[in-house]
Automatic annotation (TrEMBL):
PANTHER family: GLUCOSYLCERAMIDASE, LYSOSOMAL ACID GLUCOSYLCERAMIDASE. GO terms for cellular component: membrane. One of its GO terms (molecular function) is glucosylceramidase activity. Gene3D superfamilies: Glycosidases, Golgi alpha-mannosidase II. Residues 419-466 form the Glycosyl hydrolase family 30 beta sandwich domain. This is Glycoside hydrolase superfamily. It comes from Podospora appendiculata. Coiled coil: none annotated.
Length: 525
């Protein structure tokens, strides 16, 4: 039995489990590549907290480019666990700017002598957070790119600069800081920000205070500088200790603190070692990093910490949105993102992965879903659409475009749920080229088992799928969904798993991502 839901011009398939017997008898001779997949229930790795995205930099306003019906469709695509990606984490950007020009996020306290004034909108993020809650999203991660300018050595929230009062360049005795320290003031500012969300009914699980602290966005012609603040790990430690006190003082001691949103994996390793040397790691709940300049890769492996590690931001660099699953391994193709997710989860042992922009008004952001302003054709600027696409917001056609990376994230996010545990997986790859097939496996809290298998080769591969250790169950079955250039999350029934715990699914298509979902029942379904 198969059902389909038409969403905004896209067909998203769903399936009800059917009993399909695995074929028995003499195996057929293999004529091409073969992959044997065996899940190892006895080997365990990290816990999974979830997958998500951000609507920072005012990108949440892109939803206003859609009709109410299309907004509903896009929200389903993002958060629905049956017919969408089932994203479970929303990353919120905490503002520091005196205005909302271009990529700036306005501050609720833009001047030193002004009150903290909450606008209950926060660049559209309150609305999207409340929509996410309706779908059961519980994890909201808040991060500030910078302190407000009056707290910094350069007097502005962009173009780098240090927080006044931290050791080194931010010393209160420096000429720029004129004897003032704003470390505690910044901590209290962030604590008030978190409390404002809590008062809206949006619980913040953890808060960060830096974003790519090695980056200085200098003002150049035609540039769009955004908020940045410089820091090393020792300086970050000063802020960590102060933020811990501030959260406790405002009645939010259970809100975690994260650090340090480095631009890439090697930079994260460096700044983490400094935080550890300063004795501040014990005050943290998360280690956060981006994956622009350096991703988890052998031989470096995971970061040296026992805390959960989240990749809180990554996206294609200087590439527009693409609907292509695979062509030439460009950074905006879907299969590339399947590999990115695999490497982060297996080599990096990350517990969460967030794409940069979920829904955005410009294809130049390469968002997961592009929702352009239908009235901006022929104009310029961030809200403009000049890519010559045919648009409709009348409800008769899609007013949005789904990018290929969405489908990679949907495979992982829909089936690997918060609280899952990564488990072992063994592969027989004797007849395929090294590195062609990648696989990972997970066990959810509801005992479903998920295997993600990537065939990055240019040939289909015959396959067998087994889960040793399920003998105690009377009945188990496997559903699967595959994405290729021609199919987007196309569901099919693979096989019933009998006593030998082995099913004979369809071949792995070339350039594909296949999700196997194993469910067991004490009796017949």
């Amino acid at each position: 039995m198969r059902t389909s839901l038409l969403i905004g011009g896209l067909v998203v398939a769903a399936t009800a489990a059917l009993e399909i017997k695995a074929e028995h008898g003499a195996p057929k001779p293999r004529r091409g590549p073969y992959v044997g997949v065996a899940v190892d229930l006895n080997t365990t790795y990290q816990n999974i907290d979830g997958f998500g995205f951000s609507e920072a930099f005012q990108r949440a306003h892109a939803f206003t480019n859609l009709s109410p019906a299309q907004q509903s469709d896009v929200l389903d695509l993002l958060f629905d666990t049956s017919n969408g990606a089932g994203f479970s984490i929303l990353r919120l950007g905490l503002g520091s700017s005196p205005n909302s020009t271009i990529d700036h996020m306005n501050s609720p306290q833009p001047s030193e002598d002004g009150p903290f004034k909450w606008d209950r909108d926060d660049s559209g993020q309150v609305w999207i957070a409340k929509q996410a809650q309706k779908y059961g999203v519980e994890t909201f991660y808040a991060d500030a790119w910078s302190a407000p300018g009056y707290m910094k050595t350069n007097g502005r929230d962009d173009q780098g600069g240090w927080l006044c009062g931290v050791r080194g360049q931010g010393s209160a005795n420096s000429t720029a800081c004129q004897g003032q320290s704003f470390v505690q003031a910044y901590a209290q500012y962030l604590a008030q920000y978190v409390k404002a969300y809590v008062d809206e009914g949006i619980p913040i699980s953890s808060v960060g205070f830096l974003n790519e602290p090695n980056v200085i966005m200098k003002l150049k012609a035609n540039s769009k500088p955004y908020a940045t603040m410089q820091s090393n790990g020792y300086q970050a430690a000063d802020a960590i200790f102060a933020l811990s006190v501030a959260l406790g003082g405002i009645g939010l001691p259970k809100v975690g603190i994260s650090c340090c949103e480095a631009q890439g994996w090697s930079l994260a390793r460096e700044i983490l070692s400094e935080v550890q040397a300063a004795g501040a790691e014990t005050a943290l709940s998360l280690i956060t990093t981006h994956a622009y300049k350096g991703t988890p890769a052998a031989p470096d492996g995971a970061l040296n910490t026992t805390l959960p590690v989240w990749i809180t931001e990554n996206g294609p660099q200087r590439l527009d949105l693409s609907e292509t699953w695979y062509r030439n391994n460009s950074g905006n193709e879907g299969l590339v993102w399947a590999v990115n997710l695999h490497n982060a989860l297996t080599t990096g042992n990350v517990s969460a992965y967030m794409y940069w922009i979920g829904v955005g008004p410009s294809s130049r952001d390469a968002p997961l879903i592009w929702a352009p302003n239908p009235n901006a054709n022929g104009t310029s600027g961030i809200w403009a659409s000049n890519e010559n696409k045919t648009l409709s917001v009348s409800g008769t056609g899609p007013g949005f475009t789904v990018g290929a990376p969405y489908w990679a994230f949907a495979h992982y996010s829909r089936f690997i749920r918060p609280g899952a545990k990564r488990i072992g997986i063994n592969l027989d790859l004797s007849s395929v080229k090294p590195g062609t097939v990648l696989a990972s496996a997970f066990k959810n809290t509801d005992h479903t088992i998920v295997a993600q298998v990537i065939n990055n080769g240019d040939q289909d591969a015959e396959t067998t799928f087994s889960v040793p250790g399920l003998v105690g169950h009377q009945y188990c079955w496997v559903d699967a969904t595959v994405t290729t250039n021609d199919k987007k999350m196309s569901f099919y029934q693979t096989a019933e798993i009998l006593e030998e715990n082995k099913g004979n699914p369809k071949p792995l298509p070339a350039r594909s991502l296949t999700s196997y979902i194993v469910r067991c029942s004490p009796g017949k379904k």
